[in-house]
Amino acid sequence: MRPISFSKILIAVLVFAVAGFFSTAHSQEKANVVIKGSTTVLPITLKAIEAYKKIAPGVGISVDGSGSGNGIKALLDGSCDIANSSRAMKKEEFTKAAASKGKIKEIIVAYDMIVPIVHPTNKVKNLTKEQLKGIYDGSIKDWSEIGGDKGKIVVISRDTSSGTYEYWHEDVMKKSEVRKDALLQASSGAVVSAVANNRRALAYVGFGYLNNRVHACQVNGVDPTLENGKSGKFPISRPLYNYVNEKNLSKEAKAFIDFIIGKDGQKLVKDAGFIPLN
Questions:
Q1: Which CATH fold topology does 112-231 show?
Q2: What is the pLDDT of residues 3-39, one digit of tens each?
Q3: Which of 129, 132, 147, 152 is nearest to 201 (CA)?
Q4: Contact, 230 vs 245, CB < 8 A?
Q5: Taking Cα atoms as reference points, which of 76, 75, 74, 81 lies closest to residue 31?
Q6: How far is CA 137 from CA 4, 132, 141, 187, in A?
Q7: Exposed site from 53, 172, 190, 273, fewest CB < 10 Å?
């Protein structure tokens, strides 16, 4: 597994500075594409912007990573052109779009795994989905209950605006509530930093955020590798999305998405540590 650099971990923390750079750098250009949403999809988007501005220097693109739910909300209220999302749009969100005469299109841009992570010194290297549910709902409280050294498990979770949180809530938690003392983080980068600095912590992140500051656990005995993600063998896998409103989709926004899902864009998906479409 290829680790990503520490600078990429900080992407989500620095996103507003990055967004400001792109929007300011192109403020005088002929087009502006506004992208909002998932911090998981953010590394893919940033790599794509960097490459795309070389072939379309006249297109200004701004991006922020405020969470999948916030990105979809922005798409529905017309304040962005593209919503990055690490979870599928909900029925009620489609209903809201239809009520305002919107025509939402879903585009899968990559695939991802949600990987449990622990401090590198933690002896626990494999967890079942049932154990993960128990840890997050509070029925398992101590590392010694699952083969680790004695000590309280410090549970770290994404906040509720996160698509990663929502997928975890549905797929792992089966809609059970996360324990009240869980430490909620606003970005994937913040999750990684929290685990890297706490020997008793457990969290989950998208595959592209793994690095050597944390240990990526097996789930049900399956390693979180690119091959296992692409084959669907890893037990917690999902698509990553762009959503657009075709009623007001600009040619510039469409061209940027076409670039991401094209051959060159999918190479960038892999470079960002995620799983390409083919």
A1: D-Maltodextrin-Binding Protein; domain 2 (3.40.190)
A2: 444 444 344 444 434 444 443 343 344 458 999 999 9
A3: 152
A4: no
A5: 81
A6: 30, 9, 9, 21
A7: 53
Residue 181 reports pLDDT greater than 70 = yes
**What is the three-state SS of the chain?**
CCCCCHHHHCCCCCHHHHHHHHHHHCCCCCEEEEEEECCCCHHHHHHHHHHHHHHCCCEEEEEECCCHHHHHHHHHCCCCCEEEECCCCCHHHHHHHHHCCCCEEEEEEEEEEEEEEECCCCCCCEECHHHHHHHHHCCCCEHHHHCCCCCECEEEEECCCCHHHHHHHHHCCCCCCCCCCCEEECCHHHHHHHHHCCCCEEEEEEHHHCCCCCEECEECCECCCHHHHHHCCCCCEEEEEEEEECCCCCHHHHHHHHHHHCHHHHHHHHHCCCECCC
Q: Using alpha carbons only, how large is the chain's radius of gyration in Å?
A: 19
pTM above 0.70, yes or no: yes
Mean predicted confidence (pLDDT) in 85-113:
96
Q: How far is CA 192 from CA 39, 110, 158, in A?
A: 13, 21, 11
C-alpha 253/C-alpha 230 separation (Å) is: 27
Domain ranges in the chain with CATH number 3.40.190.10: 6-111+239-271, 112-231
Is the domain spanning 6-111+239-271 CATH 3.90.1700.10? The answer is no
Q: Identify which of 13, 80, 67, 73 has the alpha carbon closest to the alpha carbon of residue 39.
A: 67
Task: Return the bridge partners of 62, or none.
Answer: 34
